[in-house]
Amino acid sequence: MASLFPYYPVFLDLAGRSVVLIGADAAMAGLARQFLAAGAGVSVFDTSPSDAMRALGSGIRLKLRRWRPEDFQGAALVICSGDEPRPSRVRTAARAQQAVFHVLGAPESSDVMLGGVTAAGALALGVAVPGAPWAVTEAVRARLAAAVPAGLPAFLEAAARVRSEAGKRIPDDAQRAQFWREATERVFVSSPMSANEWEVLLRKWIEE
After folding, report:
1. Given pLDDT bands bounded at 50, 70 and 90, which one contains residue 4?
2. Residue 116: burial class (beta carbons within 10 Å; 0-12, 13-18, 19+)
3. How far from 129 is each of 3, 4, 115, CA to CA, in Å?
4. What are the residues facing 43 on neighbouring strands?
5. In what order do the strands lie in the sheet with 41-45?
6. 195-207 and 173-187 are packed helices; what angle lies between their axes, rounded to 10 degrees?
């Protein structure tokens, strides 16, 4: 059955890059936390920021004024609150600076669809529910995050270490794919182990 989801998911590398938020309500504060966790520099413009946004303290650059077009210079991503009276002006200014634009609650007027994100080591899970309240997206994200095995980040680290060796010892593509599928399945039924312990096991399985 064909998917009804009209977007193709991608992940942006925001480490060391600038993100600008227009609006500072609780929903925008949640996004700010995610962008900070991704290593972005976050600037926020709002004359009356929420307590949730203020609680982020020095982690963000909070400007108690309206935005100006020059504020978008160098920005990789510009996010506009649904309360912004003229989001089309924000979009025009953002695009003039080659920044990706999104307005909350209006994916049809945005360049990208935002989703809830859960990170576990090298794993990132993104959840997007177009048209649904943000709380629904967050609830689904939380349920998926709870299903991630505690030992998965360590396994992923070990897998990255032995990937090249596995490629040499198991040259057949189908057999190598089967090896990694079976190894990954064991993470979901095993007790949590360190990356070093997983590395020892993976090397042993490669030899078998």
Report:
1. low
2. buried
3. 13, 11, 7
4. 20, 61
5. 61-63, 41-45, 18-22, 75-80, 100-103
6. 140
Supply the DSSP symbol for 79: E
Q: How far apart are the first and last CA of the chain?
A: 39
Using CA atoms of 77, 82, 84, 88 in order, give the dihedral in degrees to the nearest 10. 60
- Cα 54 from Cα 60, distance rounded (Å): 9
H-run or E-run covering 53: helix 51-54
Highest mean pLDDT among 21-35, 101-115, 129-143: 21-35
C-alpha angle 84/49/145, rounded to 5°?
90
Amino acid in position 106: A
**Tokens standing for residue 123:** 């794993």
